[in-house]
Amino acid sequence: MATYKEIKGTNIQVVSSDPSNPVLGQIWFNSTSQTLKGQNLSTAGTWASGGTMNTAQTNFAGAGTQTAALAFGGTGGSTKTESYDGTSWTDLGNIFSQEVTNHAGCGTQTAALAFGGQPPPTATNATSEFDGSSWTAGGNLVTQTLRAAAAGSQTAGLKVCGSPGSSPFNSDDTQEYDGSSWTASGNYPHESKDLGACGAQTAAVAFGGDSGSNTETNEYNGSSWTAGGALPVAKNGCKGFGIQTAAVCMGGGPTPAGITTTLLYDGSSWTAGTNALSFVKNFATAKNGTQSAGIIFGGEGPPPTGASQEYNGPGQPETVTISSS
Q1: Residues 247-271: what's their mean pLDDT?
Q2: Most buried pick, 21, 172, 317, 321, via CB within 10 A?
Q3: Domain residue spans of the chain
Q4: Which architecture does CATH list for 46-312?
Q5: Contact 301, 283 (CB under 8 A)
Q6: Beta strand ranges found along 171-292 (DSSP E)
Q7: 115 in Cβ contact with 104 (< 8 Å)
Q8: Beta strand pairing status for 13-15 and 27-30?
Q9: pTM for this entry
């Protein structure tokens, strides 16, 4: 059997701290922690701390990607908007066009869509569009809603379920946005709110939710919903990013342990990913994130937080412990 030196051309190094930029397959012994470590490809993904928002928020919405995210609205009917560049958050000011909470968002940092929500004491059917510097009014939803799920883009958005703000408190409503107006589409298989969703208007996936079927996953083809692989654990209030065949489900109750749980979807079934760093709920997520690079931010600790957590999915380099003494 070949030795490590014969394969790599060098002996295993003894170091007092882990290398800052290890290469794939590299192995070293950390004399401080007395552990043998190596650089491998992740099979479950990893979470790391990102930049902290300028204002702690909960019950707000987000859009964009891990390196170009957007946060808007939130706690107490906030009109705050912030942008993220992959390192730090910039406060764009109180420019959001609605004093709203419990709304939904999708799209990109420079072409975001926000809709629904709760300017107390009721729900709204208002829609707002962001162009990278300012918000303007878009076409109203067919029905007023709060705590809906969102997928798609500013010119091809998708609204899934939610609450009309009065009895009955859950809806099975699906609506599509074309950049100017909303139209009703095929109903979700059951009435729900607080679902996770992601993907495109014609290829979306939704999961969990506030109903008796909160382990359910359903896939949308642009006109109707069909059943997908069930979640292994119940999820209420979860968030999602990615596409229909490579999605991430993050957070969601009903227990504190479930709120840090990450699940990965391949288009047919869910597998366990790496748990998030901390107990947070009612956070926002960048909808256009991918299964290999996503971000969640803000949320209830309690109290509300401005922390960000960045996700790097399976297949990304990670340092692993081989053995310890």
Answers
A1: 89
A2: 172
A3: 4-41, 46-312
A4: 6 Propeller (2.120)
A5: no
A6: 174-177, 182-184, 196-200, 203-207, 217-220, 225-227, 239-243, 246-250, 262-265, 270-272, 284-285
A7: yes
A8: parallel
A9: 0.87
